[in-house]
Amino acid sequence: MPVRARPLSPHLQVYRWQIGSTLSILHRATGVALALGLVALSYWLISLAGGDETYGAAMRVFSSPVGLLFLLGWTFSFLFHLLNGVRHLFWDAGYGFERTPRQVSGWFAVLGALGLTVCVCLAVWHGVRT
Amino acid sequence: MALIPLTLWFFFSLLALPALDYETVRTWLALPISSFLAVLSVAVLTYHSYLGTTVVIEDYVHAAGLKVLSLMLLRFLYVLFGGASIFAILRVAFGS
Description:
Shape of chain B: elongated
Structural class of chain A: mainly alpha
Helix content of chain A: over 70%
CATH topology of chain A: 3 helical TM bundles of succinate and fumarate reductases
Number of strands of chain B: 0
Oligomer: heterodimer
CATH architecture of chain A: Up-down Bundle
Largest interface: A-B, 28 and 30 residues
C-alpha cells in the first residue's frame, strides 16, 4: 500500500517564537547531544582501563580543537538539560504552570546554564594554568 | 531523580582532581567508593538516555519496520556501550 506524503499545516512558519517551545526542543536536542556524549564517555573509560598509551591517545583527542569544542558544547548541554530537567520535575509535582513562573524559570534555565558553563570553563582553565 | 546527585558527584569529582593524567585518574577511580558510584552513574545515565532517545525515535520515525529496527538497534548499542563502560570501570577497580 503506497504511502502518500500527507500535507502538514504550517507551524514553524506561522507561530511566533516563544521561550517555552524553544526550550522544549532545546531540552530534546541537548538530550540527544548528551547521548552522543555517553559514547565519548564510554571511549574515555575504556581507554583508561586499556592503559597509559590508550589513555594518552584519548586525552589528545579530547584536547584537540574539535575535542575541546565538543566538550564545551557537551558541558552546556549537560547544564541546560539538568536545569530544565529540574524545571520538569517541578511541573511533575504540579508547580509552576502559570505564565510568569514558566517564563521566569525558563530564562533561569537558559541563562543559568550559560553562566555555569562559563564558570566551568574558567575553573578548568584556571586548573590547567596552575 | 538519582541522576541529579550522581552526575553532579561524578563531574565535580573529575573537576576537583589536581590533574587529569593517567595515574591520578586511575588511582581515583580505583577507590571503592569512586568505582561504585561511577558504575551506578553510568548505569542510571545509560538507562535515562535510552528512555529519552527511544521517545525521540518513536516521534520521528514513522515507517513501522524502520521504527522497530531502530529501536532494537538502539537497545543493542546502549547495552553495548553501557556494558563496556561498566566493564572498564570494574577493570580499573579490581586491578588488571
